[in-house]
């Protein structure tokens, strides 16, 4: 969604937090309030919350490699019939293509432990887009249709 | 039994209590099971496994939310407990609707044994002795 990179400037809710795991409840609460305000039904609110949890955790653990002195900017806005959650960081760029979708096999022994976070984000949201710019940083834009 | 020893070495994001019964051990975490608290549950389950407890009921009645970090702990513990060496199982009890949604999203509902109440999960260990059949 191209519009995801250009939010309407007057209707954006924004939160800036440090890259520490303890910010997770604050970030998820922020997205919850914004999605409720946008009129999303509870099932979609839940999807946005969980996708944000996974995205934020990935940024802290992978982009910032566990460093808590980084910054994460979270922005939410409605655009027509879409609700957008955007997370921006300046950590190490992430290649989503390098993460294979985990096999959801019924053979538990064959189940890998990783890869579920990205899979959740893609399953829960209608669109997930990663943008990387060496000057600006990393931008993850997740869209949920209202 | 409360795993109080964990409090001294980890920041506490989750209260975890443990009841050792004749047929199994019930682990009861309280709070959100996310990347912050998952290591605490992982440590508790590992401690119990190291002590020889191979039949474990994870009572999720007081876990409101769970992310993939929580799922990783559950998958890892279930794989270990079902292994040839331990021949046990990890069974889930009383998950909230949201936790069921997460389990479903990961395709785990047909893989794990999930019960509506902890009494049912406990009784399942009495009814079916642990062993390869459980896997």
Task: Please explain how this structure is put together.
The complex is a heterodimer of chains A (146) and B (135). Chain A has 146 residues and is of the alpha+beta class. Chain A has helices at residues 24-37, 42-63, 116-124; strands at residues 13-18, 71-79, 82-89, 127-133, 137-145. Chain A has a single domain, classed as Heat Shock Protein 90. Chain A has a five-stranded antiparallel β-sheet with strand order 1-2-3-5-4, covered by helices on one side. In chain A, α1 (24-37) packs antiparallel against α2 (42-63) and α2 packs antiparallel against α3. Chain A starts with 12 loop residues before the first strand and ends with a strand. The relative contact order of chain A is 0.22. Chain B has 135 residues and is of the alpha/beta class. In chain B, α1 packs parallel to α2. Chain B starts with 14 loop residues before the first strand and ends in an 8-residue tail after the last helix. Residues 1-8 of chain B have low confidence and may be disordered. The interface between A and B is medium-sized, with 26 and 25 residues.
């Amino acid at each position: 969604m191209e519009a995801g990179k250009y939010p309407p400037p007057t209707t954006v809710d924004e939160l800036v937090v440090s890259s520490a795991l303890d910010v997770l409840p604050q970030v998820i609460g922020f997205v919850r309030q914004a999605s409720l305000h946008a009129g999303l039904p509870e099932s979609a609110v839940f999807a946005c919350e969980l996708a944000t949890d996974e995205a934020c955790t990935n940024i802290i653990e992978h982009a910032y490699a566990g460093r808590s002195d980084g910054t994460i900017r979270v922005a939410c806005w409605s655009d027509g019939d879409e609700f957008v959650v955007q997370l921006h960081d300046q950590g190490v760029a992430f290649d989503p293509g390098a993460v294979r979708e985990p096999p959801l096999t019924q053979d538990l022994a064959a189940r890998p432990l990783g890869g579920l976070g990205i899979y959740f984000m893609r399953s829960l949201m209608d669109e997930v887009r990663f943008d990387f710019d060496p000057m600006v940083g990393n931008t993850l834009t997740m869209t949920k249709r209202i | 039994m409360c795993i109080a020893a964990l409090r001294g070495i980890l920041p506490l994001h989750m209260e975890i209590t443990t009841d050792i019964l004749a047929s199994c051990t019930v682990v009861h975490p309280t709070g959100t099971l996310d990347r912050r608290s998952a290591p605490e549950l992982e440590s508790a389950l590992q401690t119990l496994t190291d002590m020889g407890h191979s039949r474990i009921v994870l009572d999720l009645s007081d876990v409101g939310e769970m992310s993939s970090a929580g799922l990783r702990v559950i998958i890892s513990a279930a794989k270990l407990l079902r292994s040839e060496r331990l021949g046990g199982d990890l069974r889930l009890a009383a998950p909230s609707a949201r936790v069921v949604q997460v389990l479903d999203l990961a395709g785990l509902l047909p893989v794990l044994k999930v019960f509506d109440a902890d009494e049912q999960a406990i009784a399942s260990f009495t009814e079916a002795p642990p062993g390869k059949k459980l896997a």
